[in-house]
Amino acid sequence: MELRLTDAVRTLREELTEAVEEAEAQSPDITFTVGPIQMDFEVQFRVDGKAKGKLSAWIASGEIEAGASRARTHRVSFTLTPRPKDTPNGDVSITSTQQNTHAAPPPPYTR
């Protein structure tokens, strides 16, 4: 099975959206702020002879496919920090109310 990097990021976005929607429906007593997400992949950058030299990035699956293409495998790491579309500097929270989705963190504890 071949999976493109765009598919992996799209799936992550869909899963986070589903988690937020599910939490809103369940009204949990505990909420989570989504922090940076580290993604690490073995990626094959392929030049496909059939597609007139088009370069594509695919997550390596260990399968070898015969054909008119050349592939090199590289390690790719990146960090994604989810942000709400309407508040680019806000945090995404998996919570029961939309009001807390963009809430600032509480002040530090002092004695």
How would you characterize the overall build of this protein?
This protein has one domain (3-101). The chain has one helix and six strands, in the order βαβββββ. The protein has one helix spanning 5-26; strands at residues 3-4, 32-33, 37-48, 54-59, 69-80, 93-94. A four-stranded antiparallel β-sheet has the order 1-4-3-5. Strands 2-6 form a two-stranded antiparallel ribbon.
Task: Tell me the layout of helices and strands.
Blueprint lengths: L2 E2 H22 L5 E2 L3 E12 L5 E6 L9 E12 L12 E2 L17
Antiparallel strand pairs: 1-4, 2-6, 3-4, 3-5
Total domains: 1
Q: How many distinct beta strands?
A: 6
Strand order of the largest sheet: 1-4-3-5
How many alpha or pi helices?
A: 1
Cα(first) to Cα(last) distance is 56 Å
Q: Provide the helix percentage.
A: 10-25%
Order of helices and strands: EHEEEEE
Query: Uncertain regions: pLDDT < 50 for 5+ in a row?
Result: 98-102
Instruction: Look at the helices and sheets and give the structural class.
Output: alpha+beta
What does the main sheet amount to? Answer: 4 strands, antiparallel
- What is the averaged pLDDT score? 75
Shape: elongated
